[in-house]
Write a structure and sequence with these properties.
Blueprint (H helix, E strand, L loop, with lengths): L4 H15 L2 H8 L3 E8 L2 E8 L2 H10 L1 H12 L3 E8 L15 E5 L57 H7 L35 H12 L9 E5 L5 H14 L6 E5 H13 L3 H9 L3 E5 L8 H16 L3 E6 L11 H7 L3 E5 L4 H15 L5 H10 L4 H18 L5 H7 L1 H5 L7 H12 L13 H17 L4 H7 L5 H17 L1 H18 L1
Parallel strand pairs: 2-3, 5-8, 5-9, 6-7, 7-8
Antiparallel strand pairs: 1-2, 3-4
Bound molecules: adenosine-5'-triphosphate (ATP).
The site of adenosine-5'-triphosphate (ATP) has 15 residues, from helix 7 and helix 14.
Amino acid sequence: MDRSRDEVWTECLGIIRDNISRQSFRTWFEPLRAVGLVEEGGEVKLTVQLPSRFYYEWLEEHYFGLLRKTITKVLGPGGRLYYDIVIERDEPAGAGHGRGSSMELPARQPANVPPPASERPPPADLPAGVTPPRPPAEARPDAGRPYRADAGRGAARRPAPAAPAAAEAAHPAHPFAIPGVRPIEVDPHLNDSYTFERFIEGDCNRLARAAAWSIAQAPGATSFNPFMIYGGVGLGKTHLIQAIGNYARANGHARTVRYVSSEMFTAEFVQSIQTNRINEFSQFYRGIDILIVDDVQFFGGKEKTQEEFFHIFNELHQQGKQIVLSGDRPPRDIAGIEDRLLSRFGWGLTADVQPPDVETRIAILNRRATDDGTRVRDEVIEYVATHVKSNIRELEGALIRLQAHAALTSREIDLDLARDVLKDLIKESRPQLTIESIQSVVCDYLAIPEDLVRARTRKREVVQARQVAMYFSKEITKHSLKTIGLHFGGRDHSTVIHAVRSVDDQIETDPSFREMVVAVRKKLELHQR
Ligand SMILES: Nc1ncnc2c1ncn2[C@@H]1O[C@H](COP(=O)(O)OP(=O)(O)OP(=O)(O)O)[C@@H](O)[C@H]1O
């Protein structure tokens, strides 16, 4: 064999890249690594490592034909592709591996185009003692059956909720209810309209949507636990994580679902401390079947809350309950959260959502208009979709504005109306923050008169505000260090470098400082919407 495994795989990737969208390539093929290449009995076996079973199922289901052709082209008719799957933690007994170990899982022979993964028997050629990947949830015999608290993997047995007394025991009390007085239904805090039916799938969210769908069929029983979605503002994270809860509740796959933002969780926790009810708070969250926590980055710097969440997380995970999280960035980039918690966020599956392409934007607008019972011409939909690009919330906002104007003025929604009504939005669909606006947001948050950050003063709190404003100016604007310095009373570029380093250092070492930076960042993002 004259070529190395990496060379062979790079050649394969080149062919695959030319045959699928950029987004799909990034999602499904970029994370894969070649880990072996051997020639044996007239066959050339290339082994590729997959990050999870989910990848295996997805590749087999969607890219089998392409992979077969590619391997034959690169390695000839004797070419075979083998998968090496990294086993997630807590695999069912039988797999016998911990996190990070792997198993050899031969891909199906190229001659057979396999039926969908859900209809296939387990591959017969697995090495002894290796458990085949679980079929997708919809194919499992338990899928679709009413949820039972004691049916899950490792779940503690609980009384069946038939008799009133049992029902009371089965309902975790609301943290702020009077315990023992009456059973209280857990309010899931879900928005009914955040469903899978209303969620438009595109390259931008395919992995996240597919994983969310699997989880909703069998919460706690897939290897995607926890499941974390991350991505920018208004890209559908909340919609998707709530869709899991809505679907699981509607189909009897979970009895108690709780959606909570990390800020709300923190507020409830603080309140429970103030009212001496930490135990109730903790019991309540430990009894939830699907816990959905939005915007986990706001746990940053809140050490006590993190600790409480850590214990709740562990308990739920051990009981086989489902945990679903969202954040504005991947776990490794979240500041101010303890490593032990961050590493848990990455235990299951993390999937990102990206800004939608124009086709997906058109589909979202069409769907939204149909749901609202409004007729909007194709040319108007296309006009809005091509001009409003940055996020889906803005896209929906544009449509709502059009609908409102048309209703108030009894006009039809046509291109003229769209141009007229949306001209300000379209001109500056994402206002760029200037150095001055950053100074203003930072000073407003820290209660410092704005002109002081440009003045000569070295008072401690002014220096802090100045450094934070410099830090964000460097991060957000495209200005050079020199220009940034000039906007801060004519300081030179080395002062800006020093400010950025100093802020970075303090983020690392000072939790309350870190919390302040996170809060300022959120304010700045609001100004960009
Ligand atoms: N793929 C989609 N199909 C249909 N509607 C969508 C889609 N993605 C987002 N939306 C809609 O866009 C709006 C914003 O979505 P959502 O609140 O879920 O975004 P987010 O990523 O959680 O934003 P933030 O980070 O600001 O909380 C919602 O009304 C949601 O229903």
